[in-house]
Each structure stands twice: as structure tokens, then as C-alpha cells.
Task: structure prediction
Amino acid sequence: MNIYVPTWASHTVMHNFMTTDNNKTMITINNYLDSHYIHRSNWLRAAVLGANDGIISISSLAIGVAAASSIREPIVLATVAGLVAGALSMAAGEYVSVSSQTDTEKADIEREIKELKEMPDIELNILAQIYEKRGLKKETAMQVAIEMTEKDALRTHIREELGINEISQANPIQAAIASGASFTVGGLLPLLVILFAPMKGLEYWLYGSQLFFNCFRHNFSQNRWFKYKKSYFTNYYLGDNRNGLISTGGLYLWC
Result:
């Protein structure tokens, strides 16, 4: 049985497919990653690590000095010094760390270039086997491998054999900036507590604020804003925050 669909109706359906409510643009090959987070993982990982270290390290330093001092100035001085040194150290350390990853990637790329020149047939068979393991039939896998090799052999082998692509490729400068900046922001939080909290029991203010700031950081990094869950509360304060508990508590008892 044939069903007649008016022309205006088919145009309406196509229009609704091409556009969405709230002025959202249609998802295409050029913008499909905008709603995902994987392309931000390189700098976001460094930023979360920097913010976490900034909060815990500066709080721990300030608690140690506060436990041995009855005036505010030495605590502020030590905190600012630790903040500057820590931010520079985090940025430099992240740059060196990610640079080593970049050097490894470059070395593997150079090796792949050499292999493509010296044994192109073996490399083609390896590429076909990779596609075959992913679910393609043997003939289809070989055809895909041939076409991809003809288009851009090096980029194809880098992506398929080594797993290096535009999204996962390391960026040392980006990671260094993200780590140093986030450490500074994280370290400024306990500094504000030092400046405005009362001197009496300052170390306890720092200890409590560190738990709160780390909770805020954790929620931000997980893209959730204080949605209370019993399991989350338990897992976070007894699990994710154990480093802060050990570092600040241990330093306070030692002092």
C-alpha cells in the first residue's frame, strides 16, 4: 500500500532534521566534537592535577607554618613563596613530562617513515590485519588498507598502528600553561582563607577549607555542581581526598 506524503510535509521533516530547538546547530563532521570532552583531555588532565596540587600543597604548607606561628605575616609570606615556587615547578614539570611523550611520539613516527620506505608490502598487510581485527572481512580490510595508503600512508599508519591522532597528540606548552595556571588558582584559595580567617584556630580553618575546595574541584572536574549523593560523599571524603587528609593531618601533627 502506497502512502502519499505531501511535499510540504517532507520539507517540514527535512527542516526539522536540519535544525533543532534553542538555536542549536546541526551536528556535522566539523563540529561533532563540540559536545564531547575527549579533545580537552590533554589540558584538562594537567589543569585538574595542578589545581589539586595547588590546594593540597599550599594548604599543607600554610597549616605547618600556622601551627608554629602566632602572627599572620610569616604564614602569608610562606604561602606566597610556596605559591610562586609551586606554580613554576608544576608548569616546568608538566612541560618536561609531556615533552618526553612528544619525543617518544616523534621517534615512533620517524621509525614508521623508515618502515614504509623499506617494507611497504609488510606495512600494508599489517594495516589490513588491523582493519580485519576491527571487524572487516579480509577482502574488505585489504581494500580499505590499499585506499587509505594511497590517500595518506604515513598519517594512516600513525593513526592506526601507533594510535596517535590530532585529539590524543601531546601539547607540552598547553599542558604547562594549564598546570601552572590551575596551580595558581588552587593555591590562591587557601591564601584567601589565611588573609580573612581568624588567627585563632587558623590551621583548622585551613584544614576544613581544603576539604571544601577539593570537593568543589572534584565536582567541577566531573561536570557536576554539588549534586549530593551518599555514595559520592562517602567515596570522595574517604577515597579521593585521602591524600589531603594524610598530608595536612600528618604535617600538623609533626609541627
